[in-house]
Amino acid sequence: MELDFDDSGLRDLRAYVRQVGAALGLRCDCACVLTERPVSVYLAVDGHLPRYPDRDVALLWDENSGWSAAVETYSGEDLIVVADMGPEVWPVPGRVAAWATRLLEPADSTPPRRVPVR
Question: The pTM is what?
Answer without folding.
Answer: 0.82
